[in-house]
Amino acid sequence: METNPIPNIFFRIAGVISIISAILMIAGFFLHPSGEDATYGTDPLWVPAHALLWIVFIIALPAWVGIYIVHASKAGKIGIFSFIILLIRTGFRSSIFSSDVTFVPVIASEFPQLFKRIFTNSHIAIGIACVLTWVSGNVLFGISIIRSKVFSNRAALCLIVGTLIIPIAYLSGLPVKVVAIGATINGIGQIRLGYQIYLFGK
Fold first, then answer.
1. Each residue of 91-141: pLDDT tens digit?
2. Which one of 23, 74, 97, 133 has the largest count of C-beta atoms within 10 Å of its C-beta?
3. pTM of the full predicted structure?
């Protein structure tokens, strides 16, 4: 079967998207209210912050595809495995953020007691799956980038370190600004990777 080369413009677009999504992610985390509990849904910054993060996970897909294609031949099994996890986590994160933007503010304002009924075992399981796929996907993808030696190791390290800081900061009860620092480090890695795949498409 004859394979058709991917047009260079795809990589340029993917590069730009990677940079834009990273900037929006950083902005979303810095806008985020001081808590992640759904009762913060009435905070005026809740919807803008989660809307930005929702947009990020939707538009970033072509960027991840572009990054994977460029180093796929050297990424090995860990590369394809982490890439699949990245795709799966997008579905999880999108479902969470869509409810954060649409349902949570209304419930927090009109009937906050309902949150106690929503947080069932299934809801918690989805939340855990969401976090695990996001963290493991980013970390393993970063490792595959380092092993392939196609992109900058610093970019991959930023992706890994920034990703790990976010859940650790949340679980440790550290201020949201510390979480935002992790997102910034992660974003720097994505920006650098975006710039590199943009150059690849020139």
1. 777 778 888 888 888 888 888 787 777 766 676 777 777 888 889 999 999
2. 97
3. 0.88
CA–CA gap between residue 29 and residue 17 (Å, rounded)? 18
Backbone dihedral angles phi then psi of residue 201, each to the nearest 5 degrees: -90, 0
- CA quadruple 87, 49, 182, 146: dihedral positive or negative? positive
Q: What percent of the chain has pLDDT over 70?
A: 96
Separation of first and last alpha carbons in the chain? 27
Spatial neighbors of 61 by CB under 8 A, at least 6 apart, are 87, 90
Q: Determine the angle formed by the axes of helices 8-31 and 61-102, rounding to 10 degrees.
A: 30
* DSSP-assigned states of every residue in 124-168: HHHHHHHHHHHHHHHHHHHHHHHHHTSS-HHHHHHHHHHHHHHHH
Going from the C-alpha of 109 to that of each of 48, 99, 119, the distances in angstroms are: 16, 14, 17
